């Protein structure tokens, strides 16, 4: 059986589980440890090492990280500590854990899992855009199942502001928006996205996908839009697939 440990580093939690790469099923519980305050690189690496020890894992690790990750190096830091910029995340985490670790953008990881084992499985033809709505907005774009990595469409400017500042789940909570008001903001963003990319399908993932029934019916788009299926496991499963060379 081909397996890898998948890890999803987020603003409030660092989650991980061992994944069967053929079926996408978890072989251990999903373990969650709190992200350390400030989330500086060394402190996060220690928590990742704790998680690896707690799961008694030795082997390949895949890690989803909420920034542009170019060949293992973090190049942006929208919602994480600025010290990450320029950090060789693969090296940092490989040294901390003693296991070969391969890092990619968190939304790319979630998209990979959703395309392989989730809603994208039967819908991979053409252009598919996965958007994760959480602290920020993450994006992953696939053409006929192939990922174009590190798209950062949460930072598309809408009314002069980053889209994630207006339409992420964090924005909804910060502004205490009703679902109707939130859907209006999301609609404006998705209209812009569909006019630029003409996708066949939008997949909505991230923390807010659990409540998709509250806002998806309020949207009126040209493009078909569906909630993600794997929910909070997508990032873990996709990171494991990436590390295991399954993409
Ligand atoms: C980051 C992306 C990330 C997204 C979701 C954005 O602020 O720029 O890299 O994928 O948040 O975590």
TrEMBL record:
Organism: Thermanaerothrix daxensis
A GO molecular-function annotation: kinase activity
InterPro entries documented for this protein: ATPase_NBD, ROK
Matching NCBIfam families: PolPhglucPhase (NF045942)
Protein name: Polyphosphate glucokinase
Keyword Transferase: yes
Pfam families to which the protein is assigned, alphabetical: ROK (PF00480)
Family (UniProt): Belongs to the ROK (NagC/XylR) family.
Keywords: Kinase, Transferase
